[in-house]
Design brief:
mainly beta; six-stranded antiparallel sheet
Length: 303
């Protein structure tokens, strides 16, 4: 109540109340009202999102040494967001810390490119700028945000090995088209839970070289992934866009790719008719999407 008294201006001060109580308010109305409250209360924010979006949020923390840390996230599961940001004078000389790799890059602009479920950590620190440093957005950042052009789709048939969780026996299938297995008429596929291993051999165009400047975009994925190309491990991903650098991984002629997708176990639990605890937990929800839908493509970032 005390906080509400501090930030809630009386009506006679000219700040409108957005609609009657108990009525659902549109996001844009709430955003506008919050900005009016900020201006009225003379609150100076270290970071401001200039194009507010209900799927974009941020957290700010000031370290003991005076540095500001900003965490900005896009909560949309399938769509990218371009986020325009402004910072106070105390948050200059920003660098972006890559939470997956530990790398840092210089942020010298006013726009963040966030892929689906993408996030960035910005810190105002003394990262030296000498013209050779990595600058944001990187090539991978652009690909994740959807700014990429296809170079070679991987449309050949896929060999898929099913490695069930628990005591089930592995089995194989050959697919002409990638699919969401939760929708399969085959109950053995629709109720699968475990690891799916997709394998394919594709012919690499000599113009692709060793993959310099190229990325593998897995398209729509339901599960966590790890990728190996020609016995070179490209890494793993468990959220957002599943994009991998192909630097040093390709070769002229035949290239062998292996994509491992680990699924959730909900669909398996829904089919455990003889196991009451599992069924009690899982029977009530719809099948959970599962597997690699693609399209899987070699892409290059747009300049």
């Amino acid at each position: 109540a005390q906080v509400l008294d501090m930030v809630s201006p009386p009506k006679e001060q000219g700040v409108p109340i957005p609609g009657p109580r108990g009525k659902w308010l549109d996001d844009s109305v709430l955003i506008q009202y919050a900005e009016q409250i900020r201006l009225f209360s003379k609150i100076d924010l270290p970071i401001r999102i200039l194009n507010p979006d209900p799927y974009v949020s941020q957290v700010h923390h000031e370290l003991d040494d005076g540095r500001n840390v900003f965490f900005v996230v896009n909560l949309h599961p399938t769509e990218a967001r371009q986020v325009d940001v402004g910072f106070s004078d105390g948050a200059s000389k920003l660098s972006i810390w890559d939470t997956a790799t530990g790398g840092r890059s210089v942020f010298g602009g006013d726009r963040l490119s966030l892929g689906p479920l993408g996030s960035v950590v910005l810190v105002n620190d003394s990262l030296e700028v000498n013209g050779t440093e990595t600058r944001y957005p990187s090539d991978r950042d652009r690909v994740v945000a959807g700014a990429a052009s296809p170079v070679q789709p991987l449309e050949s048939r896929w060999e898929v090995e099913f490695l069930p969780a628990g005591e089930g026996e592995p089995f194989q299938r050959v697919l002409d088209t990638l699919e969401d297995f939760s929708l399969s008429p085959d109950p053995g596929l629709a109720s699968f839970g475990g690891t799916l291993v997709y394998r394919q051999t594709f012919s690499g165009d000599p113009a692709l070289g060793e993959g310099t400047g190229l990325f593998l975009d897995l398209g729509t994925v339901h599960g966590s992934t790890s990728v190996v190309v020609n016995e070179k491990e490209l890494g793993s991903a468990w959220y957002g866009k599943h994009v991998y650098s192909l630097e040093g991984a390709l070769k002229p002629g035949a290239n062998r790719i292996e994509i491992r997708v680990s699924t959730v176990l909900a669909n398996l639990m829904r089919q455990q008719f003889n196991d009451t605890p599992w069924r009690r937990w899982a029977f009530w929800f719809d099948p959970i999407p599962m597997g690699l839908e693609g399209p899987v493509m070699v892409v290059t970032p747009d300049s």
